[in-house]
Amino acid sequence: MVIYGTIIRIWEGDRMNHKGTVLLETERLILRKFTPEDAEPMFRNWANDTDVTRFLTWPPHGTIDNTRKVIDLWVNSYEELSHYSWAIELKSLGEPIGSIAAMNPNEKVSSVEIGYCIGKAWWGQGYVAEALRAIVKFLFEDVGVNRMNAIHDPRNPNSGAVMRKAGFTFEAAKRQAGFNNLGICDHCEYGYLAEDYFKDKQAFCPCVFQ
């Protein structure tokens, strides 16, 4: 058992306590479930942009009907508490500018994979890192995730910068380990462990003890 202030975690026998895609809020963002009404801004703001999808595994949406079908799949999946797919809504704009998800939960090791994308107009302003930090806090503290995994194409170093800003650590570089819209690609792999998260939390809180 590890105690950090009011946070108690029993590591042996831990399993994730799935909560579903709950509403989260940061200083500039609202992270929420997608709705059918988000199809138009999603298509316009990022899903049809070849620059946004360049390093992703799904192609740019040719029509808004493609976007509607994707959102319908997400909306129907929200009944599953292990499904985590958030719209990144910019408060000052009132519509989504990107998405962030925790995918492929592995119950044996209590891990998830993180993926995200954001419209080109909002690159370089810290929005994805802000969203990811909120997701990290929720998944570690409320869901009981023990490990988060994330990867990026080394030709897209800004994605790695987002991971590091949110607390992830670079762990490996693998050659020709994946496939994206540019074809077979190398992978930079990052990870974040709950024990590291809570150690960092302890370091910044004067009232914690072990």
Which terms summarize this structure?
210 residues, alpha+beta, Aminopeptidase, 6 helices, 30% helix, disordered N terminus, disordered C terminus
Structure write-up:
- By secondary structure, this protein is an alpha+beta fold.
- The protein has a single domain, classed as 3-Layer(aba) Sandwich (Aminopeptidase).
- 30% of the residues lie in helices and 33% in strands.
- The chain is built from six helices and ten strands.
- An eight-stranded mixed beta sheet has the order 3-4-5-6-7-8-10-9, sandwiched between helices. The chain has a two-stranded antiparallel sheet with strand order 1-2.
- Strand 3 (24-25) and strand 4 form a beta hairpin.
- The longest helix has 17 residues, at 127-143.
- It is globular, with a radius of gyration of 17 Å.
- It starts with a strand and ends in a 7-residue tail after the last helix.
Which helices and strands, and how do they pair?
Blueprint: E1 2-4, E2 7-9, E3 24-25, E4 29-33, H1 39-47, H2 50-53, H3 64-77, E5 84-90, E6 95-106, E7 111-118, H4 127-143, E8 147-152, H5 157-165, E9 169-180, E10 183-193, H6 194-203
Parallel strand pairs: 7-8
Antiparallel strand pairs: 1-2, 3-4, 4-5, 5-6, 6-7, 8-10, 9-10
Helix pairs in contact: 1-3
